[in-house]
Amino acid sequence: MARSLKKGPFVEEYLLKKIEGKKPQATGPIKTWARRSQIAPEMIGFIFAVHNGKDHIEVLISEEMVGHRLGEFALTRKFVKHGGKMQKELEQKKKESEIAAAQSAKAATADAGAAKK
Predict the structure, then answer these.
(1) Would residue 108 count as lying in a domain?
(2) For position 31, which CATH number holds?
(3) Backbone phi, then psi, for 90, in 5-degree steps?
(4) Model confidence pLDDT, tens digit, residues 42-93
(5) Structurally, how many domains does the chain consist of?
(6) How far apart are the first and last CA of the chain?
(7) What is the pTM of this model?
């Protein structure tokens, strides 16, 4: 549910105090557990270490992130690939074909270079 316009965006006050008067390049990552805090325009360029329940994920704030919440950029769930043994075999074949294609392209450029001389 959206926050009322008359109330304005919810930004944790202590986060604004931590970045007040500082330069983004000079400060290190700012550790926070406030995933619900919205990103304000003053935060652009700073790095926040947002807690995901286990670790702190470093998030570099850019202009496109303003208005979103910090928690959106530190995912709490990890996707585990599906497939198992059969999927591994398919990935191995794909990797081998990519390596073969790269080697043939390299050989073709070497032949073209030798033909020029």
Answers:
(1) no
(2) 3.30.860.10
(3) -65, -40
(4) 999 999 999 999 999 999 999 999 999 999 999 999 887 777 788 888 889 9
(5) 1
(6) 70
(7) 0.65
